[in-house]
C-alpha cells in the first residue's frame, strides 16, 4: 500500500469526514499521488464521493440512515430505480423481505 494512502485511511478510521476531504485534496495536489488519483477520477467519481461524505454524515446524524440514504439516491443517483418483478410486488407489500442485487459496492449500504 502506498504511503500516501495512510492519512486517508486514518481519517476514514477516525470517522472524520472533513478530515477525509482535506486529506484527499492534499493527496490530489501531491506530485507523488496526484497523478494516480486524477487518473482514477477519469473513470470513477472518487472525488465527488469523498466530497459527499460530510453532508451525508451530517444527514445520517440528523435524520437517520434511511432518510440520508434516500437523499443520496434521490440527489446523486437519479438514474437509479428499483426493478421489482410483478410477481414479487404482493409479497413485498405484505411482509418484510431481504433484497439483494447487482450493484457497485459503494452503494451497498445505501441500497
Number of helices: 6
Helical residue percent band = 55-70%
Query: Low-confidence parts lasting 5 or more residues at pLDDT below 50?
Result: none
Structural category: mainly alpha
End-to-end gap:
29 Å
Gross morphology: elongated
Report what the structure shows.
With 111 residues, this protein is mainly α. The protein has a domain at 3-78. Helices cover 59% and strands 0% of the residues. The protein is built from 6 helices and no strands. Helix 2 (17-29) packs antiparallel against helix 4 and helix 4 (46-63) packs antiparallel against helix 5. It is elongated and about 55 Å long.
Q: Would you kindly provide a brief summary of this structure?
A:
With 111 residues, the chain is mainly α. The protein contains six helices and no strands.
Features of the shown structure:
111 residues, mainly alpha
List the helices and strands and how they pair.
Layout: H1 6-13, H2 17-29, H3 34-41, H4 46-63, H5 65-76, H6 89-94
Amino acid at each position: 500500500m502506498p504511503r500516501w494512502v495512510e492519512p486517508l485511511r486514518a481519517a476514514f478510521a477516525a470517522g472524520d469526514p472533513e478530515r477525509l476531504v482535506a486529506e484527499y485534496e492534499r493527496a490530489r495536489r501531491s506530485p507523488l499521488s496526484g497523478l494516480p488519483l486524477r487518473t482514477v477520477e477519469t473513470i470513477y467519481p472518487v472525488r465527488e464521493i469523498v466530497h459527499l461524505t460530510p453532508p451525508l454524515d451530517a444527514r445520517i446524524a440528523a435524520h437517520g440512515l434511511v432518510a440520508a440514504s434516500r437523499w443520496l439516491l434521490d440527489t446523486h443517483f437519479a438514474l437509479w430505480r428499483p426493478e421489482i418483478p410483478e410477481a414479487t410486488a404482493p409479497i413485498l407489500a405484505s411482509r418484510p423481505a431481504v433484497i439483494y442485487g447487482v450493484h457497485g459496492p459503494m452503494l451497498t449500504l445505501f441500497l
